[in-house]
Amino acid sequence: MDDFSGDWGISVMVVCAVFTVYVLVLLLVTSGRDPGIIPRNYHPPELESYESNAELGIDQLPRFPRTKDVVVNGVIVKVKYCDTCMLYRPPRCSHCSICDNCVERFDHHCPWVGQCIGLRNYRFFFMFIFSASLLCLYVHGFCWVYVRKIIDSEKTTFIKAMGKTPASIALIIYTFLALWFVGGLSIFHLYLIGTNQSTYENFRYRYNGHANPYNRGIVHNFLEVFCRGIPPSKNNFRAKVQKKSKMPLPHDLGSSFVSTSSANARRGPNKAAWDEGIGRDNSMGPEISTVESMENRL
Ligand SMILES: [Zn+2]
Ligand SMILES: [Zn+2]
Hints:
Elements: H1 8-32, H2 47-53, E1 55-56, E2 62-63, E3 67-72, E4 75-82, E5 87-88, E6 94-96, E7 101-103, E8 108-110, E9 115-117, H3 122-154, H4 158-164, H5 166-195, H6 199-203, H7 218-226, H8 250-255, H9 260-267, H10 272-278, H11 291-297
Antiparallel strand pairs: 1-2, 3-4, 4-5, 6-7, 8-9
Helix pairs in contact: 1-3, 3-4, 3-5
Bound molecules: zinc ion (ZN) (2 copies).
């Protein structure tokens, strides 16, 4: 700090510290918020029409049609049925295999943040990676300024200046490497926001050769991410956990849709048969969960 004239040294440090705290707060908000989890159904939907419309699978379990067509901004979009959550996912929603939840406007599961990135935390996620990129640039830049200052003031060579401030050199290398990661990610997400795609949709080439019904022009797309109100969470994570015995059990649900004899034959010694049948497409393990287990996973 003393190497800079006037209050410059302190200013550089204060800005860096405040900016670091800001980035950490964004990280906390991104990872701590409900990303847009859709609460699971305890019953399959539309019980009345279920028996007439559903087909029987090889395990004699009635099956919902796997997809349904819905119209979004004049374009037909297929929505899938989630066996785990027992609901038709809204458009752009997907089931995260790590969190084991359906998440609205699913972008991706971020292992670094330890959370799904979806409708309710995408804005903060982008702000986090963008701010982290700026912080890397800031630290990287001022480390070079400091090295330059040593060279000028001591009339020494670059190599000798490096030896005098190994911390700056370590930071220069670290921020350079980090910048490739968070900076590249920020640029990629700028492109995604501009074209109104999620990472999930982009990786699946969902709009290659198809119209993207969500793309309303670059300005509207940015406004949608940064200015649109964020809907409230659909989950009450502080709710009292119900006793499991009061919850409808999977095999009880199953027996209400198929004859008792076939249900018994299928049920066997435990509910594994139901789990396999219901989770056949996404191998999510046990399907019905309580609020408690959802909280634990989060
Ligand atoms: Zn799901
Ligand atoms: Zn996830």
